[in-house]
Write a structure and sequence with these properties.
There is one protein chain. By secondary structure, the chain is mainly alpha-helical. Among the domains are: 1-60, no CATH class; 129-199, no CATH class. It has helices spanning 2-8, 13-20, 63-73, 80-87, 92-100, 120-133, 140-153, 157-171, 175-183, 187-199, and strands spanning 25-27, 36-38, 49-52, 55-58, 78-79, 105-109, 112-116. The strands form three sheets. A three-stranded antiparallel beta sheet has the order 5-7-6, sandwiched between helices. Strands 1-2 form a two-stranded antiparallel sheet. Helix 3 (63-73) packs across helix 5 and helix 6 (120-133) runs antiparallel to helix 7. It is elongated and about 80 Å long. The N and C termini lie far apart (98 Å).
């Protein structure tokens, strides 16, 4: 800002802002947004980040708009420390704001907060990948849990509910709560899946797509 004021021969911030308004420009997400650049100048990396004169810029603009894009694209979500390595700035306060606003999902993972996409299917895929990457990946019990989460992420809504319900039945007392925490579901959703299984209230989806299978045979009318 001081440099732009000097070039424009003014001491007023508003004069600079009026000059910037019609230009396609970006503000740094680091240094309290005190650096500016034209959008045509940065050479962003594959994550949309660029360093210019010691300041960090994002293709998305602000830090609050950048983090959700990075989190959703991450194969296994992000821990706060991992995201700080990517963005080179503290992110804990921004992550808290975004989680409270429902723009990203936050869950406990082995004693740390794991940040994943808000959309359920995507975050289940990310959690499955994180299970594989986590400590103890060679442990058979760990591998079983990772396989369960990965399989769960491939199912549709009814199948997920029923799968959680059948696993709850195997767990016995407290199974609904354990499976709800494990899969990131509401406890009532697990209970509903368990009740539907016990009552046989399952909607069987069409096995073949419409029009599949052998052609329908037409009955021939006898000719007189």
């Amino acid at each position: 800002m001081p440099e732009m004021k000097a070039v424009l021969g003014t001491q007023a911030d508003m004069t600079v802002f009026r000059k910037l308004a019609p230009l396609d420009h970006l503000t740094s997400y680091s240094h309290r947004g005190s650096y500016y650049t034209l959008r045509s100048i940065p050479r962003f990396d594959e994550q949309g980040i660029w360093l210019g004169r010691g300041a960090w810029f994002s293709r998305q603009g602000t830090l609050l708009d950048t983090i959700p894009v990075l989190v959703k694209a991450a194969a296994a979500g992000y821990l706060a420390a991992e995201l700080e390595t990517v963005l080179h700035v503290p992110v804990k306060d921004a992550l808290r704001q975004l989680a409270l606003a429902g723009r990203i999902h936050r869950e406990d993972f082995q004693g740390l907060y794991l940040y994943t996409a808000q959309e359920r299917r995507r975050r289940q895929e990310q959690r499955a990948a994180r299970q594989v990457l986590g400590p103890g990946a060679e442990d058979p019990a760990h591998q079983q849990r990772a396989a369960m989460v990965l399989f769960y992420s491939l199912l549709d809504e009814q199948q997920r509910r029923l799968y959680a319900g059948v696993e709850s039945l195997q767990q016995g007392h407290g199974g609904d709560r354990q499976l709800a925490e494990f899969f990131g579901l509401d406890e009532e959703t697990v209970a509903r899946g368990r009740r539907e299984l016990l009552a046989g209230q399952v909607q069987r989806a069409r096995v073949r797509r419409a029009g599949g299978g052998r052609p329908r045979a037409e009955k021939k009318r006898p000719t007189s």
